[in-house]
Fold these 2 entries.
Entry 1:
Amino acid sequence: MEIEFILVDFEGTLAFDRRVHPKAKDKINLLAKRTKVYILTKGEKELMEEVLGRVRAEVYYLTEGEASQRKLELLQQLGATRTVAIGNGLDDAPLLEEAGLGICVIGKEGASAETMKKADVVVSDVVDALDLLLKPLRQKATLGV
């Protein structure tokens, strides 16, 4: 799969209790050298700037109630077959189903069962999801590609 874009949900996927693991930030910066990374959030701009700091990703702001639809619109605009989507919540299920590769992160907050069903891959935390993209041998072992 030719990956051009990565969409990462913020709440519950990338961040837990509004904190992002330093390793996740580093891995996003590595991926940003090869692809365009978007962080999808319903959070406030000031909070996102504080939490994400020097993360090389474009923050895509969503509003409550429209998040699922807006995520799908962004995916369609970018091109689903060239996009990886990473999420955990119910509003991520359509996104993960339509993306070229959908990764569900269970994490500390858990994950929607619907989202897990729609994903191509399920991992235990966001660092594992990002490593799956950085280390092609893991993709081969998991996806058989």
Note: DSSP finds seven helices and eight strands in the chain.
Entry 2:
Amino acid sequence: MRAAEPGDAAVLVALAGDVTGEPEGWLLTDSAWRSVADERRYLRALRRHPHGAVFVAEIDGVVVGRLSVSRDPHPASGHVADIGLMVARGQRRTGVGTALMRAAEEWARTARVTKLELHVFPHNTPAIALYEKLGYAREGHRRAHYRRPDGSLLDAVLMAKFVAP
């Protein structure tokens, strides 16, 4: 587990492309996650931005997971941060997701964030089980919240966890 570096941009874009291309529909994007140049700029900007972070999981020098965490920009909810997680197909259920989620919790404590939240598709039962195992609770169900590239709409389950300072 480590903070993502701008040099990780190409492998992170490839990881997102792989996960997006899975038939289960774990991740939605239109045609591409971001360009490598956009991802590199984003990772550079995070170095100067204390309100967010990206962590990667590496196994034998290969990036197999990515977690982004970003503080809510509204002044009344600055104690809340949103999480986005993706893990390579062959590394799921091996502890990679758990380790990345723990990294987010450590970041939250340092950043004085007391609540972490995320969206997960209702059909992603393995991810829901992981989040529940880590202490996340369902806080809501957002109907027709995401649009797939084909125009169909997907629901999202809102889950959250309070993190002790």
Note: The domain at 2-162 is CATH 3.40.630.30 (Aminopeptidase).
